[in-house]
Amino acid sequence: MTQISPASNAFARLTQKLRDRTSETSLQLVRNTCLAASATATAIAIASTQVAVKGTPLVIAVYGAAIAAPIWLAVAVVIELYLHMGESTYTHLNDVRVSRSYTAMQYAGALSLYVSVSAIVYYLSPWAFLAFVLSTLGSAGYVVVAYTKFAIWLDRHDA
Questions:
Q1: Is the pLDDT of residue 107 over 60?
Q2: Full 3-state SS string of 96-140
Q3: Over 90: is that where the pLDDT of 147 sits?
């Protein structure tokens, strides 16, 4: 059985194929997902005004939401620029340096929003928090395995 890691050639080829297939539709999906994440973070911040924010978990939730909302909005605005300028600009977005900063912003937004939601779940129930973290780890493991298997398959079939 072939072993693969994110640094392997098969995974690098998968990443390149994903970049090569950037389209208006895929960028619209990314933009809409970013706007939804920003709206979710904003909703958390607004909802926190309805309760007395007492206790560390709720304070953490507000900070996480306050960090995540503008990050996700910024990524959406940048993607909108590429959508507005058209397909000829997609190669610039896929440039490794631009792609890395864009990916770093997405990770920062996702981590902030995850911390915010996690803190709310912890505030409601520490046991639910444990279930949330375990299901997140299981889901992340599933995604890694699925991408790894797909990268191996793609490498063999050169789709």
A1: yes
A2: HHHHHHHHHHHHHHHHHHHHHHHHHHHHHCHHHHHHHHHHHHHHH
A3: no
Q: Taking residues 47-59, report their average pLDDT.
A: 84
Say which residue the tokens 């979710």 belong to: 40
Domain ranges (residues) in the chain: 22-124, 125-159
The amino acid at 149: K
